[in-house]
Fold these 2 entries.
Entry 1:
Amino acid sequence: MRVLKKWSNLPIRLKFFSVFLTIVLFAGSGMFVLNHQLLQVARDNDKIINHSVPNLTTQLQIKSTIMERINYVMLYVTTGDEELHKKFIEASERAKSIEAQLKKNALPHEREGIEQFIIHSEDWEGILSNNVIPVYQRNNPKDALDTLNSQAQPLAIELMNEAEELSQQKIHEISNDNKKVLNNAWSSVQAGYIVMGGTLLLALLFSYYISRSITNPIFSLLSGVRRMTKGDFTTQVAMKRQDEWGELSKAFNRMSQSIASLVEELKQANVRLREESHRARESTRLKSEFLANMSHEVRTPLTGIIGFAELLHEDAEGRLSPAQKNFTRNIVKAGEHLLTMINDILDLSKIEAGKYELEMSRFDMVEMIRNTLIIMQAKAEKQNISLVIETKYPTLQVMADKTRIRQILLNLLGNAIKFSHAHSVVRIIIEQSEHMVIVRVADEGIGIEVEKAEKIFEPFYQNDGRLERKYEGTGLGLALSRQFIELHGGTIGVESKPGEGSVFSFYLPSGKREAPTPDTCEQACKKEPLLVLYTADFLGSFRDFSEKIQKGFRPFLSFMIESKREAIEIVQKHPEYDILVAAQSFQAGYVDMLEGISEHTQGRIFSYIESPLRFVERGQVMRMAEYIPPSSDDMSDIISKTT
Ligand code: ADP
C-alpha cells in the first residue's frame, strides 16, 4: 500500500521513466536467457557436426579396410601376384592410421569398446601377416588357404560385426543428440514467446495504468470546469495526489475559490448599486417633479411679461424713444430665450419623471426634413452657409412624434449653422437600414474634441465657457434631443474632429412594426416562446436576468452560446421564434453573430447588452437588431418590448 502511495505521488516524468526502465529490463533479461539457450543449441549442433559425424565416417571406413585386406590376401594366395601383397601392406597401414584416429576421437564412454576392437583387429591382422602370408611364401599354399578360410575369414566377419555394432551405436547417439538439439531449440522458441508475451502484457498493463492515471484527473478537472460553466463557482475538485495533477487541481480549487468570492462580491456590489440607482432615480424623479412644477409656475407670468413687452414694443401711440424701443426689444428677446429654456427644462423633467408621452403618427421623413430646411434657410443665408439634402429616397415613411423630430432637427441644424464658418456647407444625409431610418447632420465647423463627444449631451453642458460668450445657447438642446430619440427607442451621437467639423447622427426605428404596447398575459402568453441566447460573459448576470424576465408573461427558452456557429445551430431549430441575444458587454464578434442569426430566423431579433454602449457600437447593433437599453429597471419591460 505504502509503495503504491509513494508511486502515485511520484512526478509524472519519473513515472514514465520507471515504467520504461522496467519494460526494458524485463525484455533485456528475457533476451539474455534466450540468447544463452540458442548458444547451447548451436554448441550441441556443433558437437554433432564436428565430432560424432566424423567418428561415424571413420568407423564406416574401417569396415571397408577389413574387406579390402582379406580380399587382397585371398587373391594373393590364389594367384601369387606380388602386387596384391603390396596392396595388402598399404591397406594395413591405412587401417592402422584410421584405427589411431578412431582411438584419438573416441569419447570416454566409447573408448573401451574401440580399444577392444583395435586389439581384435590387430589379432586378426596378425593371423594374416604371420600365419597366412609367410606360409604361402614358404610354398605351402594349401595350408595358407586353410588358415585363411578356417581362422581369418570367420574372424574378419566377427570384426566386421563389431565395427557395425560400433557404428550403429554412433548412429543411435547422433539421433539422440539431434533430438536433444531439437528439444532445446523448441524450448528456446517457447522461452522467446513467453518473454515476448510477458513484455507485451507488461507494456499493456503499464500503458493502461499510465493512461488511466492521466485521463482520470483530466476527467475530474473537466467535470469541475463544467460545473463552473453552469454557474457553480464554489465547485472543488477532490484529488489526493502530490504530482503535477495534484498541483493543477490545487490551483483549480484556489481559482474557483477566488472566482466564487469575486462573484459573491460582485453580487453584493450589484445589490448596493441597484439600491443606489434606485435612490438616485427616486431623487431625480423628485427633482424633476419639483422642476416641472416650478417651470409651470414661472411660465405663466413669463408669458404675460413677453406679451406686455411686445405690446409696449409695438408702441401704438409712438411715445417711445429709439433707446426705449431697443430696451423693449431686448426684454422680448430675453423673455423668449427664457421661455424656450423653461420649456426645454419642463420637457426634460417630464421625460425624467417618466411622464412624457410621445404623439406617434406615420409621416414622410424626407418631406418633413425638406420643410424644416426651408425654415432654416434664411438663418443659413445670413451667414453665407449652404444647406444641402443628400438622399436616394424620394420618401421615407416613419412612425414617430413628428413635432419632436422636427424640434431635434431644428436644434441640430441650428447648432450646425451656429458653429460653422461662413461659406461652408451643412449637409443633411438621409439613409435607411432594415429597421432604422438614419439622419445625419454634417457641418464643416469648429468640431468637438473626442473626450467631449458624450458630455455635450448632458443638460446645460456647453463645450467651452469662453465659447458661451461667443455663441448663444442654453446647453439643453442636445440633452433634450437624446431624451426624445431614446423615447422613440432610437439613439443619437456625434463623430467629430476639432477644426474639421462634426457629424451628428440619429437612428430612429422606422416603425414598420407597430410600436410596443404594454405587456399583458392575454397578449404575451399566447405567443411562441422567446429564444434567449446569452454569451458566456453574461453568465454572472443571467440568474438575476432570468428571474426578472420571468416576471414578464412570455415563456422563454434560454441557451448559453459560445460561438456564432452554436447560436446559428440553436436558431435553426426554432426559426419561427423571436430571439433575444443578451451579453454583458459589447464584444468583437457580437454584431457578426447577430448578422449570422438574422440569416436563419423569421422572428424578430432583440439585443440586450448590460454595460452601456458607445454611440458607434449602438449604431452597429441597431442595424442588425432591435435594441433594448440596459436602463430598463424592471426586466418585465424587456419582455413587453419583445411582444
Ligand atoms: P446649445 O447649442 O444651446 O449651447 P446644445 O445642447 O445644443 O446647446 O449644445 C451643447 C454644446 O455642444 C454646444 O454649446 C457646443 O459647445 C456643442 N455643439 C453642439 N453642436 C455643435 C456643432 N455642430 N459643432 C460644434 N460644437 C457643437
Note: The two ends are 66 Å apart (CA to CA).
Entry 2:
Amino acid sequence: MTDEPLVSVRNLKKHYPITEGVLSRQVGAAKAVDGISFDIAEGETLGLVGESGCGKSTAASSIIRLEEATDGEVIFNGGGRAGRERNADGTHPNDVTKFDDEELKAFRRDAQMIFQDPSSSLDPRMTVGRSVAELLMVHGMTDKQRRREIVEDLLERVGLEADYYDRYPHEFSGGQKQRIALARALVLNPEFIVADEPVSALDVSIRAEILSLLNDIQEEFGLSMLFISHDMSVVREVCDRVAVMYLGEIVEIGDTDEVFSNPQHPYTEALLSAIPRPDPSDQRENIELKGTVPSPISPPSGCKFHTRCHMVIQSDEYDLEQEDWRALLTFRDKVRAGEIDPEGIREALSPPDADPSVVDDETVEDELRMEFELPETLADDDAEAIVDRALDALTDGEIETAEDELSTFTTPCEEEEPEETDHGNGHLSACLRNKPDTEHGAPLADD
Ligand code: ADP
Ligand code: MG
C-alpha cells in the first residue's frame, strides 16, 4: 500500500430536484449527498457506513458516475498530480465527473461496482461464463478461447468451479451469485471496486465467507475498495478506515480501530451500540437510535443529527438529566409538527361506551408524559413549570400556546453547524461537543 490516494473525493454533492405541477417547476431539492470528502489509498478499503437513507448508494453511484454529480470532484488515479497540476481553468485532468466519453470508457474498465442484489448484474438468459466474458469482448479481446480461459480461472479464484461456466444464474444460490458478480467485477483487472451492501441480501450463515473472499481478493489484486454497509460489525471485518455518513454528510472518519475504540461522534456511538455483544461483561451503554433518518428535502438546521442525538447539548438555562433534555426536545418537535393528539388519547383511555370527557386532563397529561418519556416532575423547576403549562394548553386544545411555551427550549446544536475537529491520525469528527475550545462541556470521549 502506498500513501498516494487512488481516489480523492472532494466536496461531492448530489441534489435531486423536487418538481411540482405539469410544468415540473423545481420547488426544492433532496440533498442526498451534501458535500463529502475523503481519499482512498492504493490497496486500501474504506468503509462508508450509516443507516438506510443516509445517502451511501447515491454517493457510490455519483463517484462511479452512474449518476451525474451536482458539484464537487472525484479525482481518480491523479498520481502525484492530485491537487497540484490542474488545467488552466482550474479543473483537474483526472476528475471523473468531467470525463469525456473516451475517458469514461477507460474509467469503466478501471472501476467496477458490486451491488447488494447479485442478480442485477447477471442476465438470466445468459450462461454465467458468457456474462463475465462479455466484458472482455466489449473491451476488445477477440480471442474466444482466451476469454474462456480467463473466466474459468476467475471462477476458480472466487471459490467456484471452472465448469460452472456453462450454467445459468438460476442454478446458483445467492452466495454463489455474489461470487459470480465478483468475478465479473474483476475480469477487466480493475484498480477500484465499489461494493454497495454486498452481503446485506445474503443469508447470515454465508456472509462471513463472502466477506473473507472479498478480503482475500482485495489483497491478492491490490485493489482499492469503497465498501458500503449499514452494519458496523461488517465494516470491522473488511475496512482499514471507516467514514460514518448521516443525511448526506460525513460526521466521522478515521482508522477502523480508532473509530471503534474511541468514537467521537454520538451517531457513531449509537451505530456501534447496535452491534450485538455476546460478552455480558461488556459495560458499554446501550444507545437506542429512535425514529428514522429525516428527509434530505428539509434537513434539520445546525447539526443534522440534533433531532435524534442522545448527547444533544443543553441550553445554559437548565440543569436536567441528559435523557430528560432529549425527551423534552423530542416532545417540543412533535408538538411543532402537529403530531400530538390529546383528544385521541382521551378517547383511547375512556371506558367503552363512556363519554371521553370522563377522563380528566391530568390523566391525559400523565399519559403524554409517559409516551414521551418525560418524568413525572422534571428536576429543574423552571423547565417543569414550562412543560406543565404546555401540557395544560394541549389538553385545552390550545396547540399554539403549547408550541410557544415549548419553544423556549433551544439547543446550540440546532443553531450552529459543527465544524470538523481533528483528533490526529486522520481521525476527524463533526460535533459541536468536540470543538477544542468548547463552551459546551466535555467532549464525548477523551480516553
Ligand atoms: P442509502 O444508500 O444510504 O440508503 P440512498 O443514497 O439510497 O441512501 O438515498 C439517500 C436519500 O436520497 C434518500 O432520502 C432517498 O430517498 C433520496 N433519493 C435517492 N434517489 C433519489 C432520486 N432519484 N430522487 C429523489 N431522491 C432520491
Ligand atoms: Mg443504499
Note: The pocket of magnesium ion (ligand 2) is lined by residues 56-57 (CB under 6 Å).
